[in-house]
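#struct-help
A.M.: can someone run this one for me? Single chain, 108 residues.
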Amino acid sequence: MIRKLIKSILGENFTKNNAKLASVNFGIILLMFLVSGIMLFFLPEQIPILHNGTTEYPIPTTLGVWLFPIIALVINISFIKQNRLSKINSIIFAVLLVAMVAFYFSFI
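D.P.: on it. Structure tokens below:
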């Protein structure tokens, strides 16, 4: 069911060859969403996203925690559309997950 939905959205670029890599990437992104949802309850009201020397630019936590997973989801869909999925993409998404968790734990 999910495979049919994704194939209808992404077209012919979603083949069996890259379906395994896409499912791994979507699994990592799902973990990102789960971690972000859980960490939302433990983070302060605002988290700094941009740093300019000693100046920090905070944004509300409810917006900030969803930035990593949404950007990863958009990038993954664009990789599928362009037929550019590889093992390197999955490794990069896993590194992004670890960096996201480290970023969140730096505020606790």
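A.M.: thanks! Residues 68 and 100 are 7 Å apart (CA to CA).
D.P.: also worth noting: Helices lie at 2-10, 16-39, 61-64, 67-81, 87-105.
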